Amino acid sequence: MTIRSMLLAGAAAVLMTAGGAGAKTLVYCSEASPEGFDPAPYTSGTTFDASSHPVYDQLVEFKPGTTEIEPGLAESWDVSEDGLTYTFHLRQGVKFHSVDGFSPTRDFNADDVIFSFDRQGNKDNPYYEYAPGVSYEYYAGMDMPTIIKSIEKVDDYTVKFTLSEPNAPFLADMAMDFASIISKEYADKLAAEDRKADINNVPVGTGPFEFVAYQKDAVIRYKANPDYFKGKAPIDDLIFAITPDPAVRMQKLQAGECQIMPYPAPADLEALKSDPNITVGEQPGLNVAYFAYNTTQKPFDDPKVRKALNMSINKQAIIDAVFQGAGQVAKNPIPPTMWSYNDAIQDDPYDPEAAKKMLDEAGVKDLEMNIWAMPVQRPYMPNARRTAELMQADLAKVGVKANIVSYEWGEYLSKSKDPNRDGAVILGWTGDNGDPDNFLAVLLGCSAAESGANRAFWCDKDFDDLITKARQTSDMAERTKLYEQAQVVFKEQAPWDTIAHSTVFMPMSNKVTGYVMSPLGGHDFYGVDISE
Amino acid sequence: MSEVTETNIPAGTRREQLAEFWFYFKENRGAVVGLTVFILVVLAATFAPLLSSFSPDVQYRDVLLAPPMTDSAHGHFWLGTDAVGRDMLSRLLFGARYSLFVGVVVVLLALSVGVVLGLLAGWFGGWVDTVIMRVMDVILAFPSLLLALVFVAILGPGLINAMIAIAIVYQPHFARLTRGAVLSERNKDYVMAARVAGAGNMRLMFRTVLPNCLAPLIVQGTLSFSNAILDVAALGFLGLGAQPPTPEWGTMLSEAREFILRAWWVVTFPGLAILITVLAINLMGDGLRDALDPKLKRS
Amino acid sequence: MIRFILGKILWLIPTLVGITIVAFGFVRVLPGDPVLLMAGERGLTPERHAELTHQLGFDRPIWEQYFDFLWKVLHGNLGDSLVTHKPVLNEFLALFPATVELGLCAMVLAVAIGVPVGVMAAIKRGSWFDQATMTTALVGYSMPIFWWGLLLIILFSGILKWTPVSGRISLMYYFPNGSGFMIWDALMSGQKGALTSALSHLILPSVVLATIPLAVIARQTRSAMLEVLGEDYVRTARAKGMPPRRVIGIHALRNAMIPVITTIGLQVGMLMAGAILTETIFSWPGIGKWMVDSISRRDYPSVQGGLLMIAAIVMVVNLIVDLLYGLINPRIRHR
Fold first, then answer.
1. Phi, psi of A107 (to 5 degrees)
2. What is the ipTM of this complex?
């Protein structure tokens, strides 16, 4: 007997004894281990894929495949005239999962909602720091402590949020992973047993899948929640096989050891696409890679100079060489999958001759500048160093001498925030909630210019007025118009060279049906089925 | 008396020793093969620009991942091209420079620091000995590659830093050897004689005792030479050694990993180059040990 | 004897203290601010930065942090990971069985093949068997194992498709409350095919990890054996007409085992270093890969806790080897 036939025999034996007839299992070759199973203290997509997506629900949710909001644990909601009060009407009869050592005695209600937010903002909540080092970065990062003035329980199934100022993106924020609703009853029980940290090890939610077991750095197992309020998932078992190496993930997919995988290596795309048993899903990522000039320094304070430099950089060459085709040239600071993307805008053409002339006109001669290249690979930028080398060569053609500088990642992030920093920085952003405010205000607003998150230190009054007004308006059509105008201002002023939006690929077996790629970049397996 | 301290073995016998050494060395067929291959590698590294018809860094974008023996408009790629269209053969030839450079620098660094520390510890004894050897014990308690990894993380990834890290991890072996040898030599007659003749500590340590501890150090040196090549390649493989586009063999392997099933040549050749070089040095090392170690000479 | 053992243990204490200093010190001089890394592109306000730094204790004087660390270590607390916010010791223990299983398997392979081959080679010195095995051993000793692992994957998983690509057991098998030792769990579960699945996942990584120790042990056994065969008492025994088999079996082998055992003990440290590479190649969920990941994530507590545990384990194993050595060879004890 060869090893292989022994394996096959063993596999067949188990299939017969274990699952029983018709148990459907979906295996997802995930790219890394989750940091934990409580989504609130974390910020990485990998952790959300394993926690908030399968196990938890939020008050409102993103409609699959879009960045639009639909009802979740809240059946409906009212927004007051002044935009300051949000009242959520909660769904009744929703059950939390049962796990080893805990079975819920009551349904989901307003207490759970209040607890889920209170623990992140209230220092006196026992779960504010339930384990050493736990902190709610996303809650703080989305400015929730300032935005939310108070949360009140009106009755068991009604919760009222009062905001300190009108904030249209707030609803989208409530669909984010940090806003997942956890069971207060479970948390109280853990606190009573002095094992609060277990909330991060064994999650109890209301979501489509129940957590079964996690074997560190190897496997996560879930089973379908039969009582899920939208109906039981078509598959019975969901397994995450943690496989950090993209080449290995691909091999496992081709060998049928898993049915779906994220983040293939660009080099393997061709092979995957030509495999008749595999379908490759494809979508622009909700991100942007940019090249931010320091607009407070000469000669970069002159929009003409910035535009000239933009015109001297061949972005298509970067897409080809660095993204290996897995990306598209960016013309706006927000990605094309986002609502209010202004497609009417014309990108500055690649034209070194004209650029040179423009620089001459602006009186720029023998310019020497730094190009900051980050040391790590990010979803929006596979290789910043190589990008910088290409830019360096392009700039040399228009008579600009560029030096490439780089620092360790943490240092890079903090040093690039220094307003006295010289030159231009390569950096990028991945969207959180699909709201344009999450790009335009966070990266280009005036308050961000002060904090340094606006790496161009660009504070343009017209632009800032437009995005502030858009934030305070709840009418979608009007907001769209305002953001479209803001993009026009951005393009005229050119504080950045917008480099690229990367493309996200999702190879899966042909047997997988119903998988919808999320523009937000998460991986969600509710609604996915396997055909035989 | 002073001539005796200068060179405790007359020049004539030294030449005889060398002849004897060569006699035993060339008896060992493996060692001679190793030496030959090693010389070839050195030649390849030295004359890399002459031997290769391509620059190791030029990317030919129309011949990505070309298999070995590919003819193209640019010329003949004997060992194919890598993922961005660089000639594998040129990269391997230039890579030999890095590997040899790494071996030499690491051994010199580790040897000089280790020998000085070992001499100090062995010669002075007492608390000097205790402190030095304790520190060595601590370093040796960590698996070498792990410690080197942490060192490189501190110093920042790069070839130079990887070499420094490996040298730090290796020097305790030299220190221990030297200390042991010094302890056994310290009270021998010729040292006593030199001391009586008024030689100072420095002179005694470096000119009198050290030359007599050389044999084990040479053997350890060759061993470290080959291990250094392996370990720096391993660091490169883990992404912490030489950084791309440097054609260091370990780094090349690490870059080639994603093509493991599609383009066997980008994975196979760098590893083979490492194996052959290290094997040659180890063969030489075996020969050296047999020729230098009188106890095993006739076995 | 007890004095000998106690002495050995006492001798270790200063080294252990040194190890804590190194583990702590290294990690403190790692460049990069873990608080900034946690925030990423999103960034944080200076106030928030100060608050988090304080919460993690990085703003206290370095010596205070060290003694705090030492105090906690003495109480079995290695701190909490900055990434997962879970106790480092728990994380270590969750992954440790995987590394031990791999290491033991590799060691068994290395000894089971290395010792007999070394003995045979010594007895038949100069024969083709001797030459062939010793050349192979030298090749094994010169092997860049990260490349060797890739080659084996190409051959056995890619072309022949005999072995799985990565992982520890087929996902079909699941052992709740398992010990973490997959072979043991598979055996105990009684599920058909579980053991073969676990073994087929283990085989390639073990072979890769065993390569260098196997070569070293074979070479070491051969030279120890040769030395003993040349000793007077063996010659005497031979001269007295003792059958060669008994000479080798009783006298030679036993005495040759002393240096061999030392070599095996020394290989434990090597094994740990090899595990870093092997686990990275095979995505084996063990300590080696965890350390590499922790270093790149600047997870201070995990790196220092891991360094400490690994060094302590290596030292304890070396101590045991030392003691065994003392037991076998009484001369050492009284020195």
1. -80, 170
2. 0.85
Beta bridge partners of A85: A162
Domain assignments of chain B as residue spans, ordered by start? 21-296
Are A447 and A341 contacting, i.e. CB atoms less than 8 angstroms apart? no
Question: Where along chain C do the CATH 1.10.3720.10 domains lie?
Answer: 89-332
Interface contact B58, partner A, CB < 8 A = no
- Which uninterrupted H or E stretch holds A151? strand A148-155
The candidate with the shortest Cα–Cα distance to B86, out of A243, A195, B11, B95, is B95
Q: Which residues make Cβ contacts (< 8 Å) with residue B17, sequence separation at least 6?
A: B9
Q: Is C122 on the interface with B (CB under 8 A)?
A: no
What CATH code is assigned to B21-296?
A: 1.10.3720.10
Those residues whose C-beta lies under 8 Å from the C-beta of residue A487, and which sit 6 or more positions away, are: A332, A333, A334, A341, A342, A345
C73 with C20: CB under 8 angstroms? Answer: yes
CB-based contact, B149 to chain C, within 8 Å: yes
Looking at the complex, does the CB of residue A70 fall below 8 Å from at least one CB of chain B?
no
Mutating which of C147, C276, C293, C318 best tests the B interface, going by the most B Cβ atoms within 10 A?
Answer: C147
- pLDDT tens string C169-214: 888 788 877 788 888 888 888 888 888 888 999 999 999 999 999 9
Query: In the β-sheet with A85-90, what is the strand arrangement from edge to edge?
Result: A74-79, A85-90, A158-163, A148-155
Q: Do B142 and C296 touch (CB under 8 A)?
A: no
Return the CATH fold of C89-332.
MetI-like fold (1.10.3720)
Regions in chain A scoring below 70 on pLDDT: 1-22
Burial class (CB within 10 angstroms; exposed 0-12, middle 13-18, buried 19+) of B187: exposed
Q: How is chain A split among helix, strand and coil, in percent rounded to 5?
A: 35, 20, 45
Cβ-based burial of B79 (10 A; exposed 0-12, middle 13-18, buried ≥19): buried
Q: How many whole angstroms separate alpha carbon B35 and alpha carbon A296?
A: 63
Residue A379: C-alpha distances to residues A281, A287, A383 (Å): 17, 8, 10
Neighbours of A300 (CB within 10 A): 24
Contact flag C292-B154 (C-beta cutoff 8 Å): no
In chain B, the N- to C-terminal Cα span, in Å, equals: 38
Whole-number pLDDT of residue C31 = 67
Contact yes or no for B224/B167 (Cβ under 8 A): no
Residue written as tokens 């063996």?
C234
Please name which of C191, C258, C267, C177 lies closest in space to residue C223, comparing C-alpha atoms: C258
Interatomic CA distance for residues A488 and A478, integer angstroms: 16
Question: Minimal Cα distance from B254: which residue of A?
Answer: A245
**pLDDT tens, residue by residue, C191-200:** 888 888 889 9
**A344-386 per-position pLDDT tens digit:** 999 999 999 999 999 999 998 889 999 999 877 788 998 888 8
Phi-psi region of C190 (alpha: psi -120 to 50; beta: other; left: phi over 0): left
Report pLDDT for C329. 65
